[in-house]
């Protein structure tokens, strides 16, 4: 029950509203107990009139009016309670979503390296629904059940102790059977949740990579995978259903047996005159009302178990340590002309070998630096460390004369504009994608698009800069998406510019146009270029060559091309490839 305790604690900001709801529920549940008592009094007056002709008609009318007023008041309070309940539901969903989303935004990059986005979203939805279900149950069922059960047994004991005892023993019987049933159900629910996370995560991945799935004709395989998972989920559900209905049969059987005994006692005592007709009506109504808490008990325990298992991953994520508090204010003024220094920096990802091994280099102010090496050499890792997505395992990183250890992520990232290798775009408009992270107006966005040689195609879109680009820019070509990213970097205009294969998706003409635009953008900036095509880095000031996580060479493009080493070898491979292509078409 530890997660239930966490649910109660996490909802502390809403406790005042919960208290108001609880008071209203207590009043309405108490008013419901008044109706059987009034019915008893009405029946007694009618019996007096029929049997002894001594009934008081004015008292009878008064009782009917009181019953009407009580019923009307109960209806009004129920409507108010339901309205407040709806308000509470909205606030609870908002509160839980914000709590979860805040945590996700502050988690380190390493968490997302090992998790699937669809799985995270599924855990969020399941957590919110299970917590919401429990809180709704707590306010609308648990309190009324306790109040009604207590007063029902009390009133029954006043009129007939055996009937009160028989009604009372129903509660531990129902509670014991329901508890055992829900515990078994909960164990299976944890297994089912894991399978659902896998299936939802896979569906999310398939939708994100639908072109890949279709081009490799993997629709059947993906369908079979999800179908297989759903079959396993249904088997678990069938097991849960069997358990529930078996115990439900035992509950109902015990109820019918005890109700049979209660009816025998009530009708026999009424027949003998030990109970009046009105008392008989009252007892039967109270016993009938007692059935609702009994049936509710099974529902309540099911909701409790659902909250316990459904919120498990939700709270596990909330308990992860936050590494980046996004509401943190920057601690330093922006450095106008920064430099970057790596001093004996080593790094390794979780459960991996050393990716960067004692790397040392200097990227000077306003310098154009290229990172060169084979795939997996450590180029992207260096970029991630510069962006403070990760902390080095050892060594020191400096920006200007500031130690990274003493800077927060905002201090660092405010200095950097970035163009990713992958097209990192939202499904919103061109305008919103370009001015993301800035407060630029339309005029400034259009100017940035022109500098990135993107405005010509953007203005031809159905709604120009207000056209939506689709998820991850699916409605744009690869080159168009890349130029939107470049326009975004131009608009941010930070003193450090990182180009991670920024022109890799462009044709020769577009690449030349973008390179011309980038030449203007790169003025008076420290530019860090990650590139495999050496044609894009021939005008840089410095090349840092990386091999197996080590810095093996540093120099100018001209100097390194004449020097035996990895750079000249990679350059030679590219030149040979181009030469063969030209020879094939008899151009060389």
From TrEMBL:
GO MF annotation terms: ABC-type transporter activity; ATP binding; ATP hydrolysis activity; ATPase-coupled lipid transmembrane transporter activity
Question: Where mainly found?
Answer: membrane
Q: Which residues form the signal peptide?
A: none
Residues covered by the ABC transmembrane type-1 domain: 19-306
Topology within the bilayer: Multi-pass membrane protein
Membrane in keyword set: yes
Q: Where is it localised?
A: Cell membrane
GO CC annotation: plasma membrane
Q: Report the superkingdom from the record.
A: Bacteria
Q: What is this protein called?
A: Iron ABC transporter ATP-binding protein
């Amino acid at each position: 029950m530890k997660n239930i305790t966490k649910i109660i604690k996490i909802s502390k900001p809403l406790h005042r509203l919960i208290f108001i709801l609880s008071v209203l529920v207590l009043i309405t549940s108490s008013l419901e107990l008044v109706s059987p008592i009034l019915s008893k009094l009405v029946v007694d007056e009618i019996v007096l009139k029929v049997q002894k002709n001594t009934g008081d008609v004015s008292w009878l009318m008064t009782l009917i009016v009181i019953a009407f007023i009580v019923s009307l008041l109960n209806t009004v309070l129920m409507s108010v309670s339901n309205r407040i309940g709806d308000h509470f539901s909205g606030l609870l969903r908002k509160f839980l979503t914000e709590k979860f989303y805040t945590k996700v935004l502050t988690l380190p990059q390493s968490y997302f390296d090992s998790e699937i986005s669809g799985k995270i979203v599924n855990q969020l939805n399941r957590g919110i629904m299970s917590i919401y279900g429990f809180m709704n149950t707590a306010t609308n069922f648990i309190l009324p059940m306790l109040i009604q059960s207590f007063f029902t047994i009390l009133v029954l004991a006043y009129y007939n102790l055996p009937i009160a005892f028989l009604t009372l023993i129903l509660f531990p019987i129902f509670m014991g059977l329901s508890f055992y049933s829900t515990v078994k159900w909960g164990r299976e629910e944890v297994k089912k949740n894991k399978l659902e996370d896998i299936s939802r995560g896979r569906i999310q991945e398939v939708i994100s990579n639908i072109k890949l799935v279709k081009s490799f004709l993997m629709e059947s395989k993906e369908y079979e995978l999800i179908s297989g998972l759903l079959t396993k989920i249904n088997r678990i559900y069938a097991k849960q259903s069997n358990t529930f209905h078996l115990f439900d049969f035992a509950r109902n059987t015990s109820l019918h047996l005890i109700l049979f005994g209660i009816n025998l006692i009530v009708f026999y005592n009424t027949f003998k005159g030990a109970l009046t007709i009105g008392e008989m009506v009252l007892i039967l109504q109270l016993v009938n009302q007692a059935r609702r808490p009994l049936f509710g008990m099974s529902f309540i325990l099911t909701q409790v178990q659902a909250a316990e298992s459904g919120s498990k991953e939700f709270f596990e994520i909330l308990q992860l340590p936050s590494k980046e508090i996004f509401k943190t204010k920057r601690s330093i003024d922006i450095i106008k002309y920064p430099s970057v220094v790596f001093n004996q920096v080593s790094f390794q990802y979780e459960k991996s070998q050393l990716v960067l091994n004692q790397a040392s280099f200097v990227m000077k102010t306003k310098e154009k630096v290229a990172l060169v090496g084979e795939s997996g050499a450590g180029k992207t890792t260096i970029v991630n460390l510069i962006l403070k997505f990760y902390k080095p395992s050892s060594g020191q990183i400096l920006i200007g004369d500031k130690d990274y250890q003493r800077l927060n992520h905002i201090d660092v990232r405010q200095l950097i504009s970035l163009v990713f290798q992958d097209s990192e775009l939202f499904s919103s408009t061109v305008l919103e994608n370009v001015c993301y992270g800035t407060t630029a107006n339309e005029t400034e966005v259009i100017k940035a698009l022109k500098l990135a040689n993107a405005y010509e195609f953007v203005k031809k879109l159905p709604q120009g800069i207000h056209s939506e680009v689709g998820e991850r820019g699916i409605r744009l070509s690869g080159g168009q998406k890349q130029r939107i990213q470049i326009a975004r970097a131009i608009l941010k205009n930070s003193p450090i510019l990182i180009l991670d294969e920024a022109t890799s998706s462009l044709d020769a003409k577009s690449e030349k146009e973008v390179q011309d635009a980038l030449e203007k953008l790169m003025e008076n900036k420290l530019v860090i270029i990650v590139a495999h095509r050496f044609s894009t880095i021939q005008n840089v000031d410095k090349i840092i060559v990386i091999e197996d996580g080590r810095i093996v060479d540093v120099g100018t493009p001209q100097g390194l091309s004449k020097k035996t080493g990895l750079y000249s070898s990679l350059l030679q491979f590219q030149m040979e490839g181009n030469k063969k292509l030209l020879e094939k078409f008899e151009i060389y």
